[in-house]
Amino acid sequence: MSAYRTILLVAAMEQESSPLKQSLDFRPATASSRFAVPFSRFEADLGGTRLILSLNGKDRRYGNENVGLEMAALNTYDAIHAYSPDLVINFGTAGAFKDRGAEVGKVFLSKDRFFFHDHRIPLSGYEDYGRGYLPGLDVESFAQALSLPTGIVSSGSSLDFTDRDLEEIHRNGATLKEMEAAGIAWSCYLTGIPFFAIKSVTNLVDKTVSSATEFEKNFAVAVESLTNTTRTVLEAIVRGELPGK
Ligand code: ADE
């Protein structure tokens, strides 16, 4: 029996999450925010565990998906208040490094620290704060039991990267580069809810020139493996295989 009775799943893009939504039979969630926020929420039952899926939703000005750190943090903070989860999981896509064992479509679980690579504050006492070092759940043995690789996730606000970003990504020891996890980790750190991420690789940052072109080309492949692995992970948690809080 799982120690986690309610699990909040956070995703940025509708297209990243809709196959999982269908496969686990999610329906619109009952409780929601009292504000006209764009987050869209669904719920499902998996073996007696309540699953809440919360998407960042669309921007009402541009109609695009609310990707990025700010909306991921706000969505998570609001959903934590609405549903009081015992565990938060972010599932989504990421860029990654072939030199660190990544391949397109390969899925990683996060290690126990989350970082930013573009929050540079070179003032005394602010450097590590800028880098994040936000706590995540240590899922190393759980990942090993499921034969899944783990990697450090470094988050920033751009799909592409500058040389300074790359320097910071390496300094953070990151295998994965994406745009949401550290924002979500911040909301979980503030509220004391355990958190980890599941990231599927769309593009190899150290092998291909354009992150955007590769992202679009490989998105469907990455989402397929993301969906399968997220389901496997959830089923294992529901069986009680993730150690309790
Ligand atoms: N999501 C998928 N690929 C990404 C990349 N290269 N950078 C940031 N977020 C991503």
Give an overview in words.
The chain is α/β, with parallel strands linked by helices. The protein has one domain: 3-Layer(aba) Sandwich (Rossmann fold). 34% of the residues lie in helices and 27% in strands. It is built from 7 helices and 10 strands. A 5-stranded mixed barrel has the order 5-9-8-6-10. The two termini are 14 Å apart. The structure holds adenine.
Structure described in brief:
By secondary structure, the chain is an alpha/beta fold. The protein has one domain (6-238): Nucleoside phosphorylase domain (Rossmann fold, 3-Layer(aba) Sandwich). The protein has 7 helices and 10 strands.
Give the topology, please.
Layout: E1 6-11, H1 14-23, E2 27-28, E3 40-46, E4 49-55, H2 69-83, E5 87-96, E6 107-116, H3 127-131, E7 134-135, H4 140-145, E8 150-155, H5 163-171, E9 174-178, H6 181-191, E10 195-204, H7 211-238
Parallel strand pairs: 1-4, 1-5, 5-10, 6-8, 8-9
Antiparallel strand pairs: 2-3, 3-4, 5-9, 6-7, 6-10
The chain binds adenine.
- CATH homology group: Nucleoside phosphorylase domain
- Contiguous uncertain segments of 5+ residues: none
CATH fold-level name: Rossmann fold
In whole angstroms, the N-to-C terminal distance is: 14 Å
Helix content estimate: 25-40%
**Percent of residues in β-strands:** 25-35%
- Mean pLDDT rating: 96
Structural Rg: 17 Å
Q: Please state the structural category.
A: alpha/beta
Bulk shape: globular
CATH architecture identity? 3-Layer(aba) Sandwich
